[in-house]
Amino acid sequence: MTAHTSTEVSVKKNRSDALIRYGALLALLIFLLLMLLPFFMITINSFKTESEYLANGPFSLPSGFDLEAINTTWALTDYSTKLINSLLISSSTALLAVTLSLFNAFALGIGRIRGRTFFLLFFLMAIALPPESLAYPLYYLFNQIDLYNTRLSIILITAALHTAFGTYLLSSVFRTFNQDILESARLDGCNKLQLLLRIVIPLSWPTLSVLFVFFFIWTWNDFFLPLIFLISNDNQTVPIAMALARGERGMVITTQSAAAFLGVFPAFIFFLLFQRTLTKGIMSGSSK
Fold first, then answer.
1. pLDDT score for 2
2. pTM for this one?
3. Under CATH, what is the fold of the domain 78-248?
């Protein structure tokens, strides 16, 4: 009787666990659909003509892939130039921010320099500092050194802001680094630079890759700082150009959808290309 009762309890528990798992999966699927719905809407409306949109509404599928709205927005915004600007700024910023974060975190997490707690608090405050409060001082500074309205200004400013977060994160990772490996490398004659290049970077490569992906996406989507520091049409990024295009085209919904689509699509492709790298980095961090 006892064995029979325990079996029933076990079956009920398994059923309850299964219901919880399937319920969580269903909730995640619904959340995924809600997240993808806006992108799906701007995609299908980007390939409609204006008359087709007015006749069938925003939820209907396009009868064909009409490229009029895409071509109009592309030509209106000089999209090729804006795409090159965004790719150059985002990749350079991400690379510079990861490099600076690596050197800072190596000194704080492995080098164990004096006053590292103070430096970590400084970087933590830099993370919490809103970029809006830095707009005027940075504008005045870069205007004085003749870097205002240049892509280099955005690269330097954004890389510095990202470095604060990257340093704080990597310092926490490096503090838990296997000291036996580091000590063995020192006994084998590795200096600090060799220790960084041959030991720390290869073992931390998944984390560095995740930082690069995040920094790239954050820089690509940044709107506030490029709006202030890139006033020339030749230096503007994709988000700025797409926002201006939607304003210039008034209420033509197909052109607005095309502008939103062209603004989001490159970042979406980049995320898909580096999805495996991102997953490996997150799984590597969770298994340490």
1. 55
2. 0.83
3. MetI-like fold (1.10.3720)
